[in-house]
Amino acid sequence: MTDTAPTRRSRLTDVPSVSPEASAAGSGYLWRFWLIVAIWVAIVAERSAALGVSVRDPEGQMFVNRLAKALVFLVAIALAEAVLRARSRGWSLRSVAAVVRERWTMSRLLLVVSGLVGYHVVYLGYRNLKSWNAFNPLRDDDLLSWDRALFLGHSPWVLLHTLLGESYAAEALAVVYRSFTYVIVLGLVGSLALIPRVRHAYVFLCSATWAWILGTLCYYILPTLGPYAAVPAEFAGLRHTPITDTQAEYLTERAAFLANPAAPDAFVSLGAFASLHVGFTTLVLLMARYYGLRRLSIALGFYLAGVILATVYFGWHYVLDDITGVLLAVTAVRLGRWTVSPPAALGRLFAGWRREPT
């Protein structure tokens, strides 16, 4: 069975039909999702035992705090949507409460919360595996040479510095780069809160989950730190921004981890190939198209261009990282859709790809 993208008549604020989760398709997607989570947990546990390094959540930043913030966003978005939809009944606490009860059945609540928990479990594993990748030899020289070959011997970030300047552009692109976290959280939580059928919302959730898994695989294929760490002199002229401090902090953290991996707060956040900033921004764009949000898709297209510029401009990523990030997103969305609605037969896979918009 292949899932069908919501039609444009199915708007984000539509009232769902009665018990939409109890459709003929059932909730097999939930079990498939948690099977992926369980396999991922087993992989993380095996690597942790093999390396002798425990799974960590330093100060709750990778799991506890992120999950808590996601739940807060979920409540805020759900209440805001209920207030807007209650207009037709007259704004009152009673009408708002009635809208909330209609949308948030116990079935929907359990599906959404369990999905968020599983997603953040995968994210915690991703961050730990990314940290342990510091033990592997670096391949920055390879990507550096490939990027320069693509640009006829020039460093693409240096070309951007020359074209855009190193002052005002740095400040503007720093804002774009740092906004990424909020775009991802709002996109994921917003889909779970607003999409009438949770099954359709799970396409976003499963795609995002696959993106972390595929991103981890890429990190291990080509362990790299990024241009700013490989050729720091080529970024020395950039105006100081919060990005500058973050980059220095990440290098310090990596050195501390390699010096004493057993330290309870030792953690690494660096990994260049592939760019998950580009990958996840592309994923959000693809999901906006999947949900029929044309105007949002156009806006996200411009935002994606800004993110791509920022990743190369600041030296977080090589151009090849960004290209791979786009391909990663396309693959993750396909895997996410298959997780929710597996194809009935191999012969229908390519037909489904041609027939259904991504």
TrEMBL record:
<feature type="transmembrane region" description="Helical">
    <location>
        <begin position="67"/>
        <end position="86"/>
    </location>
</feature>
<protein>
    <submittedName>
        <fullName>Phosphatase PAP2 family protein</fullName>
    </submittedName>
</protein>
<feature type="transmembrane region" description="Helical">
    <location>
        <begin position="176"/>
        <end position="195"/>
    </location>
</feature>
<keyword id="KW-1133">Transmembrane helix</keyword>
<feature type="region of interest" description="Disordered">
    <location>
        <begin position="1"/>
        <end position="23"/>
    </location>
</feature>
<feature type="transmembrane region" description="Helical">
    <location>
        <begin position="106"/>
        <end position="126"/>
    </location>
</feature>
<dbReference type="Pfam" id="PF14378">
    <property type="entry name" value="PAP2_3"/>
</dbReference>
<keyword id="KW-0472">Membrane</keyword>
<dbReference type="InterPro" id="IPR052185">
    <property type="entry name" value="IPC_Synthase-Related"/>
</dbReference>
<feature type="transmembrane region" description="Helical">
    <location>
        <begin position="202"/>
        <end position="222"/>
    </location>
</feature>
<keyword id="KW-0812">Transmembrane</keyword>
<feature type="domain" description="Inositolphosphotransferase Aur1/Ipt1">
    <location>
        <begin position="142"/>
        <end position="333"/>
    </location>
</feature>
<feature type="transmembrane region" description="Helical">
    <location>
        <begin position="300"/>
        <end position="319"/>
    </location>
</feature>
<dbReference type="GO" id="GO:0016020">
    <property type="term" value="C:membrane"/>
</dbReference>
<feature type="transmembrane region" description="Helical">
    <location>
        <begin position="33"/>
        <end position="55"/>
    </location>
</feature>
<dbReference type="InterPro" id="IPR026841">
    <property type="entry name" value="Aur1/Ipt1"/>
</dbReference>
<feature type="transmembrane region" description="Helical">
    <location>
        <begin position="266"/>
        <end position="288"/>
    </location>
</feature>
